[in-house]
Amino acid sequence: MCGIVGYVGAKAPIPILVEGLKRLEYRGYDSSGVATMNGEGKVFVHKRAGRIRDLEHSMPGECPKANVGLAHTRWATHGEPNDANSHPHLSHDEKIAVVHNGIVENHSSLRTMLMGEGVAFRSDTDTEVIPHLIARFYEGDLETAVKRALHLIQGTYGIVAMHSEEPDKLVVARNGSPIVLGVGDSEMFVASDAPALVAHTKQVVYLEDGEIAVLSPEGFRTTDLSDRTIQKDVNELDWEIEEIERGDFEHFMLKEIHEQPLSIDRGLRGRAMSDFGDAKLGGLNLDRRAFFDIKRVCLIACGTSLHAAMAASYLIEELARIPCAVEIASELRYRNPIVDANTLYFAVSQSGETADTLAAMREVRRKGGIVLGVVNVVGSTIARESDGGMYIRSGPEIAVASTKAFTSQLLALTLFALKIGRMRDLSSTAGKQLIHALNELPDQITTVLDQSDSVKEIAHSILDASYVLFLGRGGNYATALEGALKLKEVSYIQCEGFAAAEMKHGPIALIGDGTPVIFLCPRDHLRDKTLSNMEEVKARKGRIIAVCNPGDERVMALADAYIEVPETHNLLTPFLTVIPLQLIAYHAALALGLDVDKPRNLAKSVTVE
Predict the structure, then answer these.
(1) Which of 320, 479, 492, 531 could serve as 421's disulfide partner, Cβ 3.0–4.6 Å?
(2) Three-state secondary structure readout of 112-143
(3) CA–CA distance, 404 with 394 (Å, rounded to integer)
(4) Which fold, 451-594?
């Protein structure tokens, strides 16, 4: 859940390392640090708790000149966020520096062993055992020492190590935590995520679990822990540097909310077949017979991806007429799931690296299930290990709080529902109507975004609330959950999302004079039921904020404030109702003076349990 950057080449490393760390700030962190050679046979390390700007401002005026270095942003797991616990960590002789993502599960026993051998520890982290273990085995070859140390380590890791006696080398290892290499001109880069590399190279190599890479200015070579050589393909990044910068927007979150018309258009391009009312999804790797063999669909996800999956489940059941279950990945992976050969599984993850989703996918595949990925990041682990799938094409998402990924994931799964529906009972007329409505979404989302100022007023009206309730029905139940999650993530206001009919089964006890209740009430077949719930809130003096269609006078008469979204196909309303909720969360956090893009305690890619 942290950021790693490393460099070896002819340039001064520290500017490259610090720039790379800034590109990874979205991952969430509480401290940062850099390491390079000090020119005196030891390693120079500078690290600080707090933001990267704190690291920069406290940097010595004259940093050592070297051609190798590594850097890290830490999200605390073992040990509080302070200078001592920040990465990089050094060996006892200060010749080896290591940065590490993941968790060393047996760190306690390793620490006891090393202390018994006279090693003094400087931090409370699990990571510090790694440089001490490498030093224990070092006999002139860093690669061999790293491999011997890793044989003793249990847990997950993405590791970069360097030694002062081998100043033109980085040794990199992966087991469960993403690592990507960048291939330059007489220089090599390494990072935990591609945005740190885009400014320098688009030639990348993705390490798999159990692989070790040795980097030098001349290039790289890859082996496994048993010294077997592994040939790796070099991939081309399709991101542009402008995509990972804010441009004219104050925050990445706002930029990504406003990018949704483009991301929806990109997700439809080449896939929506208007003439046939069908969808073309070549990456599923399923033949025609396999589609007819599907008796059930199961969507596996966490967080925002889970809510997108929940909204999609209504579409899949309605369009394809087959049962669709949604599973929380962190729960599924620790059950003994019943894997049915006639069930098609989807692993849904923006990053493609979510640890719980990845583990659940592997468990299902281990039991013989077919798992398709729905991911954003090309070359991510889920994309590589799944049996096929769909890229959501939303472009880089930098803000920790996910926004455009929700609508893009929902779109990809909608197209799947359309495709399988058309192969079964869905008529071409119904398919064409759905595609027509999908094609209208970009302009309709823009219409909602144009109301940002009025949404801001509503957001400011809930700043003093002790509790906010989000209510919806059908697919908009998932939207209510997502709206509550967004507000919690960035504004820290206590809130919950519920199915509207569930309000009277408990949550109604929380409604008092002025309690904000946000209703998702488009003009669909469930509207009258939702209106009844609004009456119940009104009777208890709750403050109703409605997301509704234009001209819906019954909703507007009950609401204290409302936001209009255009009418669309009944099954597609979550694409539009979620937009005001994203804007409410953004404007509330901004008004409270909070760090919108990097909310406390959160990380973009949750790559540890």
Answers:
(1) 320
(2) HHHHHCCCCCCCCCCCCHHHHHHHHHCCCCHH
(3) 7
(4) Rossmann fold (3.40.50)
3-state class of 529 per DSSP? helix
Structure token digits, residue 522: 């488009």
Residue 416: both structure tokens together: 């799947």
Whether 85 and 125 have beta carbons less than 8 Å apart is answered as yes
Using the predicted structure, report yes or no on whether residue 276 has a pLDDT greater than 80. Answer: yes
Tokens of 379: 């070359």
When the pLDDT of each residue in the chain is averaged and rounded to a whole number, the result is: 92
Handedness of CA 470, 602, 352, 247 (dihedral sign): positive
> What residues does each domain of the chain span?
3-243, 247-445, 451-594
Do 247-445 and 451-594 share a fold? yes
Domain 3-243: CATH superfamily, name plus number: Aminohydrolase, N-terminal nucleophile (Ntn) domain (3.60.20.10)
Unique residue bearing structure tokens 């993403």: 178
> What pLDDT was estimated at residue 439?
97
The angle subtended at Cα 605 by Cα 603 and Cα 609, nearest 5°, is 85
Mean pLDDT lowest for which of 71-75, 456-460, 533-537? 71-75
pLDDT tens-digit readout, 293-338: 999 999 999 999 999 999 999 999 999 999 999 999 999 988 888 9
Q: How far apart are CA 433 and CA 56, in angstroms?
A: 55
One of 2, 298, 302, 495 is an active-site residue; which one? Answer: 2
Dihedral sign, Cα of residue 538, residue 542, residue 547, residue 550: positive
Sheet strands side by side (includes 219-224): 89-90, 96-104, 155-163, 170-175, 211-216, 219-224, 229-230
Average pLDDT over residues 499-513: 90
Handedness of CA 412, 415, 419, 420 (dihedral sign): positive
Residue 86 tokens, joined: 């920040």
> Which one is catalytic: 22, 47, 169, 604?
604
Which runs of E-coded beta strand occur in 302-456? 324-328, 343-349, 370-375, 389-391
Q: Is the pLDDT of residue 27 over 80?
A: no
Structure tokens at 143: 């690669």
CATH 3.40.50.10490 fits 247-445, yes or no: yes
Helix (H) or strand (E) holding 429: helix 428-449
Q: Output the CA–CA distances (angstroms, integers) from residue 420 to 152, 291, 319, 346, in the order listed.
A: 48, 7, 8, 14
Q: Is 604 a catalytic residue?
A: yes
255 is known as an active-site residue: no
